């Protein structure tokens, strides 16, 4: 992506984590979600400039199994694996504390980082965060069922990739999905082993949300078919410093479908923490 500098870092297990960055100032780390072809840039392309123009450094890791990072086979993709490898890479990148922006699986990783390393996390911006329900309940959600069934089979092609991306957004937004985004994610998906999704293992962090004391801003699409919007109540009921915002006619990608609004609200939150 134009304007992003990239670095690769070797972490435990001999894996490589790719980190892209733009801008300068306090660190804002964007943690992307799961799914075929996911990467930092493809999840947050519409949000980077708003953050850098506000005086922050945008840092976009590709999680293990995604983007340009290592994609090992024959392992379980646990929440702890995602958390530990991305933290190790961020520290190698020179990040000592950050505000974390996490969507879906990235939201679960952000929460896990806040629980394991509260000194590292200054605040959380979460869009439809995962890991706050039992994993089995997520796999009953229609969006995830469609995603898993469509990945890696003999008919997997650009059209199938477009269908998978379309599932992430409300029907109102489908016609606005760029061909370039589909092609970018398809190129990554073709390099991913099935283990990335088939052997993902995530715990339910909801019982521990009360331990997260940093400020939390949760944004959710009312029509999300991947992570139920009712999950926002977990934060309101259990966290001492949480606010939630729900968008009508919006799916799983608030930061994409409502980019201008998301950027405005996110920058305001960032400035509150400065």
TrEMBL record:
Coiled coil: none annotated. One of its GO terms (molecular function) is hydrolase activity. Gene3D superfamilies: alpha/beta hydrolase (3.40.50.1820). It holds the Pfam family Abhydrolase_1. Residues 26-258 form the AB hydrolase-1 domain. Keywords: Hydrolase. It comes from the Bacteria. This is Alpha/beta hydrolase. It comes from Novosphingobium endophyticum.
